[in-house]
């Protein structure tokens, strides 16, 4: 096949399995847009803002593990991509970013919309190149794909518009190559001995354990280990299972805190948990990861193991313990759930946000994909959306960007037929609500739930516990259901607790995209699990500052 460089770029991506490109057209991208028009095997998804396009690509990749693509034109269009691309970088999502550029003879002349794009994208990218010669256009695309896929990050290609118009040689249809995965097989004898000698081991899981629920349960049964998960481990195991204590951190559970406090061995499996203040001191630690750079990165580790979580669980073969540590925590877990349920069942108006998350957890599909936005809503999603195994939870867990819920849910919806639900604060909703137009245009059946308290709730809480009066956090009240209806999406407004259950049912039964706007209390605080909920006064500010890092 021969044609222009623009055709080579698009046809190469198609040959590599790319199905869609998210973005907004622009003059420096005109040849590329025409190449997409000519190729029926790829679809252009017109976002309403380049940040939305990059987030859509990032969340599709996070859900599928595949390479995705977004595009922005020269100057501002490229700049707008960066927040979504940093989300991809910090989450290890495989995203190719294509950016437009002015003609090569104008580069360096301070021309209209000319920026040094490659310098700008240097920090966010694992691969960062410009196509300047038609002879190597295909090779650069294939290299970008390889780097994004195998290095789990952002690959950036800058495309001067005059180069896109040049004739290109016949394509070689290069493949990204076959790379055998390095499944290390370390000696597990030392880890096995430590586990067998331990009386109170705790299994701490993260995203690296995705899909390993049965193996985790078998290990917990044999060793008596309670299972605690980091943010990205939610949904791998059943929150109601007696072996599962829940999440750790500010948005965690008291049973998990109790398990960590009493542990004599911590087995960190597929997690690089950043908040070391929650990791118990003076306890032996086993850490299992496929990336040796992550082992011991945050806390000292006694037994480092470079292998997959599956290899570890399949081959560790510990002795079966008669005494089960998780059983000694049963009463504490039951009390925690009772306390949470009591809050969730309060019939007060304005509605408590915990009640909204709990109602959604009862009625969402068993295999739903849940997008949790950033802020107080993250706490309600993790703590009160108690779930059976099989649901998938995705966040901006490392960048912690507000506004990821709507575009993230759209990107996920393109890649799955499963129910996709976004839990979004009103501050986050307003940041990227223009992407509802994208959902309407492409009839993506996403369900967006707005926790509407007319406040930047997490910021308000942070200001208060640090001794400051809340300032700059009041939001101009909005009826987001009305905005959805104006766009052509079904909008449902719930202001009273008595209407919550029916509102959730109506939302989830809607065929296409829909928004549920729930007016919730602005005074509900995301209290740390190791403190009693009645203890509002007398906090030690230094401790709270540690606990305020909520994206674990």
Can you offer a commentary on this structure?
With 552 residues, the protein is α/β, with parallel strands linked by helices. The protein starts with a strand and ends in a 5-residue tail after the last helix. It folds into three domains: 3-168, Thiamin diphosphate (ThDP)-binding fold, Pyr/PP domains (Rossmann fold, 3-Layer(aba) Sandwich), CATH 3.40.50; 189-328, 3-Layer(aba) Sandwich (Rossmann fold); 345-547, 3-Layer(aba) Sandwich (Rossmann fold). The radius of gyration is 24 Å and the shape is globular. 53% of the residues are buried. A six-stranded parallel sheet has the order 3-2-4-5-7-6, with helices on both faces. Helices cover 37% and strands 17% of the residues.
Task: Write a brief caption for the model.
With 552 residues, the chain is α/β, with parallel strands linked by helices. It has 23 helices and 20 strands.
Q: What integer is the average pLDDT?
A: 92
Task: Supply the helix-strand structural class.
Answer: alpha/beta
Low-confidence stretches: 531-552
The CATH superfamily of the largest domain turns out to be Thiamin diphosphate (ThDP)-binding fold, Pyr/PP domains
Please estimate the helix content. Answer: 25-40%
Number of helices: 23
Number of beta strands: 20
For the biggest β-sheet, the strand order reads 3-2-4-5-7-6
- Per CATH, the architecture of the largest domain is 3-Layer(aba) Sandwich
Question: Kindly, what is the distance between the CA atoms of the first and last residues, rounded to a whole number of angstroms?
Answer: 48 Å
Under CATH, the topology of the largest domain is which? Rossmann fold
Main sheet attributes: strand count, strand direction, barrel closure: 6 strands, parallel
Q: Which of globular, elongated, flat, extended, rod-shaped describes the shape?
A: globular
The overall number of domains is 3
Alpha carbon gyration radius: 24 Å
């Amino acid at each position: 096949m021969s044609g222009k460089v623009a055709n080579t770029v698009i046809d190469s991506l198609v040959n590599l399995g790319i199905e869609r490109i998210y973005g907004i057209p622009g003059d420096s991208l005109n040849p590329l847009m025409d190449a997409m028009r000519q190729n029926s095997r790829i679809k252009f998804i017109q976002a309403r803002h380049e940040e939305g396009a990059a987030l859509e690509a990032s969340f599709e990749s996070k859900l599928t593990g595949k390479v995705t693509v977004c595009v922005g034109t020269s100057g501002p269009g490229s700049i707008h991509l960066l927040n979504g691309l940093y989300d991809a970088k910090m989450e290890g999502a495989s995203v190719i970013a294509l950016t437009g550029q002015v003609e090569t003879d104008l580069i360096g002349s301070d021309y209209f919309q000319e920026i040094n794009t490659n310098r700008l994208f240097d920090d966010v990218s694992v691969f960062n190149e410009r196509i300047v010669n038609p002879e190597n256009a295909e090779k650069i695309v294939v290299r970008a794909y390889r780097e994004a896929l195998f290095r789990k990050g952002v690959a950036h290609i800058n495309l001067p518009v005059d180069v896109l118009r040049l004739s290109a040689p016949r394509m070689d249809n290069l493949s990204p190559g076959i790379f055998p995965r390095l499944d290390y097989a370390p000696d597990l004898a030392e880890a096995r001995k430590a586990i067998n000698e331990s009386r109170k081991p705790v299994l701490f899981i993260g995203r690296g354990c995705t899909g390993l629920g049965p193996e985790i349960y078998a290990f917990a049964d044999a060793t008596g280990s309670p299972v605690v998960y980091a943010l990205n481990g939610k949904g791998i195991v059943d929150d109601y299972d007696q072996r599962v204590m829940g999440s750790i951190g500010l948005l965690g559970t008291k049973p998990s805190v109790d398990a960590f406090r009493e542990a004599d061995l911590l087995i960190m499996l597929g997690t690089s948990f950043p908040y070391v203040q929650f990791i118990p001191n003076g306890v032996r630690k086993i850490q299992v990861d496929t990336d040796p750079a992550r082992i011991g990165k945050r806390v000292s580790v006694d037994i480092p193991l470079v292998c997959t979580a599956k290899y570890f669980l399949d081959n560790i073969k510990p002795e079966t313990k008669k005494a089960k540590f998780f059983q000694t925590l049963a009463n504490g877990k039951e009390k925690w759930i009772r306390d949470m349920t009591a809050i969730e069942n309060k019939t007060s108006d304005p509605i408590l946000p915990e009640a909204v998350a709990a109602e959604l957890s009862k009625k969402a599909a068993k295999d739903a994909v849940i997008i949790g936005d950033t802020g107080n809503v993250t706490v309600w999603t993790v703590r009160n959306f108690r779930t059976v195994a099989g649901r998938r939870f995705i966040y901006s867990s490392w960048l912690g960007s507000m506004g990821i819920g709507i575009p993230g849910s759209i990107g996920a919806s393109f890649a799955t037929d499963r129910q996709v639900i976004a839990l979004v604060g009103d501050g986050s909703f307003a940041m990227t609500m223009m992407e509802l137009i994208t959902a309407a245009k492409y009839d993506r059946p996403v369900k967006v739930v707005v926790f509407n308290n007319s406040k930047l709730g997490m910021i308000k809480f942070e200001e208060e516990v640090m001794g400051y009066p809340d300032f700059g956090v009041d939001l101009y009240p909005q009826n987001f259901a009305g905005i959805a209806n104006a766009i052509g999406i079904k909008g449902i407004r719930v202001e009273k607790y008595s209407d919550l259950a029916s509102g959730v049912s109506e939302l989830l039964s809607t065929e296409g995209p829909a928004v549920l706007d729930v007016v919730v209390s602005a005074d509900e605080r995301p209290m740390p699990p190791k403190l009693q909920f009645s203890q509002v006064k007398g906090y030690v500010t230094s401790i709270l500052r540690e606990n305020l890092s909520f994206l674990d």
